[in-house]
Amino acid sequence: MSAQAKAEAAASDPPSNLEAPSNRNPHLTTETDGVVLASEADAELLAKMGYKQELKRNFSTLEVFGIAFSIMGLLPSIASTLAFSIPAGPAGMVWSWFLASGCIFVVGLAMADLGSAMPTSGGLYWWTHYFSSPGTRNYLCFLVGYSNSLGLIGGLCSIDYGFALMFLSVIVIAKDGEWTPSTGLIYVVFMICVVSHAMLASLLTKIMGKLQTLAVFLNITLIVATVIALPIGAAANRNDGAFIFTSVQNLTTWPTGWAFMLAWLSPLWTIGGFDSCVHMSEEASNAAKAVPMGILTSIGMCWGLGFVIVIVISACMDPELSNVLGSGFGQPMAQIYYDALGKNGALGFMTLVFVVQYLMGLSMLVAASRQAWAFSRDGALPFSSFFRPISKTFGFIPFRAVWGCAFVALILGLLSLIAPAAAAALFSLAVAANNFAWLMPILARVVWGQAKFIPGAFHTGRLSVPIAWAAIVFLVFGILLAMFPVGGPDPTASSMNYTVVVNSAVWGGASLYYVLSARKWFTGPKSTLEEVEGVVEKLTEDQKKELVRQGLLQDGKSGGEGEKTE
Fold first, then answer.
1. Which residue from 60, 125, 208, 443 has the least number of CB within 10 angstroms?
2. For the segment 18-32, what is each residue's pLDDT rounded down to a tens digit?
């Protein structure tokens, strides 16, 4: 915790987080080697959290929204998760999307409150440390940081694994279903995808923001084209409204009601990329507004457009759902396109789908690397000193963190070689790990730290606390949901949901690491400002004593590391 943030937490009447001081802090970093990194207002807000500006703020509000919407990749994501939603039948797929998306929007509101007040790349674990009690803050901060880092990398794995399946499904369609890719080949395509993403994330820094605008355009184009083409192509065989909105089925061995709830995993995974706006905070212009707007607009658009998409899919798919789920193309959406539009139409649309999916993975790697970099900046990751430097050569980005995340993704992706159920765990890993990382800062705020919360440019007002509690309840439910085997209550080794194993390893491993080692040296986020004594000197003696008592301040000072670049 930086001295600036600690000072504001202890002050009896602290100013708004967005309130510009009358005298600019002389220690702010707004440019390096003649390169302007940020406006003074953005640098000042970041300095209040103890960090100097090191990344270049290349992203506008539209581009922050773009990276979240690109990661969500609405139609490709729905296509990748049809195996979760179709077993509940068309009505289960349609209404689970609508209800779950509304709940996710509530989570987004709670997150937007925090993202506007304190926009930093490591927001989730930083907020957890800031709001938690003195006795729990270091451990919870450490656990959230690891859960979020692995959750984002798990999201990258699931996106790129989905890309591999979609890419190969195009080849299967072209060969009229007479060829089946091996699991080894699927992993090779996955590996090539991850490595190419790391290369592009390293080399396209100057236009990365513009790529998000392109990704938004391609996403909307794909959605509009699908919503128009599928009903036309399936005109002779379209399902009626009763089938779409009232036909609840159950292709699992769970009770029908629980099969409906498991269909919620599709929107939970699809719309789970909204926290990427938080991780891009230190590269966003006017972050206090760009971050909450990016969160809410991306969720809102996915809620509305996704509802339209699942209705269209339900109207145009084979009413014999087992034919869709067991498609010889290896991808249910490919079968839906093929049935409605024929071979050439399916080839064209699936090609556009995997192109959009590819851009999803690129955006996810960018977001994951920023979280990993922020966590290494605070010394929590193994080899933090290695991953910490910012590369000037590649445009003020965390170059090493990009490749570190890609390497971990390649390791996690080996799960796909075990069994299809193990590969499916990559999807649930992203849901469970990220839900936990979203849960803890919201919970810490309302349980321990509400008095320290200072609203930013966006705030939900008197509804803020009720919204936070509603988000907490839903996130706990989402974590539990992600652990259940999709097929039924008596899984075999091949149908087991390995999410519980992977997440237990993440949370248990992080906890064990903390108990055995990190508790001796990890004290939470570190200040990177070179001098902060001026802020501490403005505190009263009582305020200093209170910060020392809470373990937030030692001897009235807070030191930190200087800027590291390469």
1. 60
2. 333 334 444 445 655
pLDDT in tens, 386-436: 888 888 877 778 889 999 999 999 988 887 777 666 677 666 677 888 899
Provide mean pLDDT across the span 215-238: 92
Distance CA(531)–CA(89), nearest Å, equals 61
Cα 126 → chain centroid: 16
Q: Which long-range contacts (CB under 8 A, 24 or more apart) does 312-315 make?
A: 312/226, 312/227, 312/230, 312/231, 313/78, 313/82, 313/93, 313/230, 314/90, 314/91, 314/93, 314/94, 314/239, 314/243, 314/244, 315/230, 315/231, 315/234, 315/238, 315/239, 315/244
pLDDT at 24: 46
Query: What is the pLDDT, as a whole number, of residue 114?
Result: 94
Residues in the chain: 566
Helices 420-444 and 123-131 pack at an angle, to 10 degrees, of 40
Residue with tokens 């070689």: 417
At 144 the pLDDT is 93
> Cα separation of 558 and 404, whole Å?
29
Q: Which of 373, 117, 131, 91 is nearest to 241 (CA)?
A: 91
The number of beta carbons lying within 10 Å of the beta carbon of residue 16 is 12
Catalogue the long-range contacts made by 332-338 (C-beta closer than 8 Å, 24 or more residues apart): 332/79, 332/82, 332/83, 332/86, 333/78, 333/79, 333/82, 333/166, 334/166, 334/169, 334/170, 334/172, 334/173, 336/230, 337/230, 338/173
In the Cβ-directed half-sphere of 344, how many Cα atoms lie within 13 Å? 0
**Per-residue pLDDT tens digits for 283-306:** 788 888 899 999 999 999 999 999
Q: How confident is the model at residue 191 (pLDDT cuts 50, 70, 90)?
A: very high
Q: What is the pLDDT of residue 555?
A: 52
pLDDT band at 38 (very low <50, low <70, confident <90, very high): low
Count CB atoms within 10 A of the CB of residue 530: 13
Closest C-alpha among 270, 287, 437, 276 to residue 367: 276
Residues 6+ apart with CB under 8 A from 476: 439
What count of other Cβ atoms lies within 10 Å of the Cβ of residue 424? 25
Q: With contact defined as beta carbons under 8 Å apart, do 354 and 166 qualify?
A: yes
**Pairwise CA distance, residues 544 & 283, whole Å:** 33
Radius of gyration of the chain (CA): 24
Whether 46 has a pLDDT exceeding 80, the answer reads: no
Are 460 and 106 in contact by the 8 Å Cβ rule? The answer is: no
Cα 368 to chain centroid, rounded: 8
Spatial neighbors of 132 by CB under 8 A, at least 6 apart, are: 140, 141, 444, 448, 449
